[in-house]
């Protein structure tokens, strides 16, 4: 899988999420970084749709975390924007569901990486021309092998 992507439309961002669904496995952690409007939720929507989640995947900003079941793998979708510390993450008790799920965390850099031995960081950005970009950064040999394979 390519590591750098240009995403002219929201459908392109969702398609990248769908492509990630082909390589994720139970226990995976995906950390999404980028400014507001960069496509973090759209990417998660594509991932959820490709996993077969039947319900809409919306931003969990106000509930902080949502669990979507019914697909090939459960999808735990977290918005860590309002979390200020690792202790706040611990209070969510996310590690109780990470072994059987794919956990996607928006705004989680520096807070959630310890939830898994390896993780994939997806750096999303929004250019001045409103085109989004994504860079996939594997952290760990398992993710490196999957992205290179």
Automatic annotation (TrEMBL):
Presence of the UniProt keyword Cytoplasm in the record: yes
Taxonomic superkingdom: Bacteria
Gene Ontology CC: cytoplasm
InterPro entries reported for this sequence: P-loop_NTPase (IPR027417), T6A_TsaE (IPR003442)
Leader sequence residues: none
Localisation per UniProt entry: Cytoplasm
Major subcellular location class: cytoplasm
Sample GO molecular function, one term: metal ion binding
Keywords: ATP-binding, Cytoplasm, Magnesium, Metal-binding, Nucleotide-binding, tRNA processing
Keyword Amino-acid biosynthesis annotated: no
Protein's GO biological process: tRNA threonylcarbamoyladenosine modification
Family: Belongs to the TsaE family.
Protein task: Required for the formation of a threonylcarbamoyl group on adenosine at position 37 (t(6)A37) in tRNAs that read codons beginning with adenine. Is involved in the transfer of the threonylcarbamoyl moiety of threonylcarbamoyl-AMP (TC-AMP) to the N6 group of A37, together with TsaD and TsaB. TsaE seems to play an indirect role in the t(6)A biosynthesis pathway, possibly in regulating the core enzymatic function of TsaD.
The name this protein goes by in its record: tRNA threonylcarbamoyladenosine biosynthesis protein TsaE
């Amino acid at each position: 899988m390519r590591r750098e992507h240009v995403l002219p439309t929201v459908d392109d961002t969702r398609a990248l999420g769908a492509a990630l669904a082909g390589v994720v496995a139970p226990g995976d952690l995906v950390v999404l970084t980028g400014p507001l409007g960069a496509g973090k939720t759209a990417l998660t929507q594509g991932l959820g749709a490709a996993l077969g989640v039947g319900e809409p995947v919306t931003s969990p900003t106000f509930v902080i975390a949502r669990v979507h079941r019914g697909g090939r793998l459960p999808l735990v979708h977290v918005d860590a924007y309002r979390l200020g510390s690792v202790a706040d993450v611990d209070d969510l008790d996310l590690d109780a569901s990470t072994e059987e799920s794919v956990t996607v965390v928006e705004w989680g850099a520096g807070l959630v990486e310890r939830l898994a031995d390896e993780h994939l960081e997806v750096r999303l950005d929004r250019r001045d021309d409103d085109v989004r970009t994504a860079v996939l950064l594997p952290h760990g040999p398992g993710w490196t092998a999957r992205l290179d394979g």
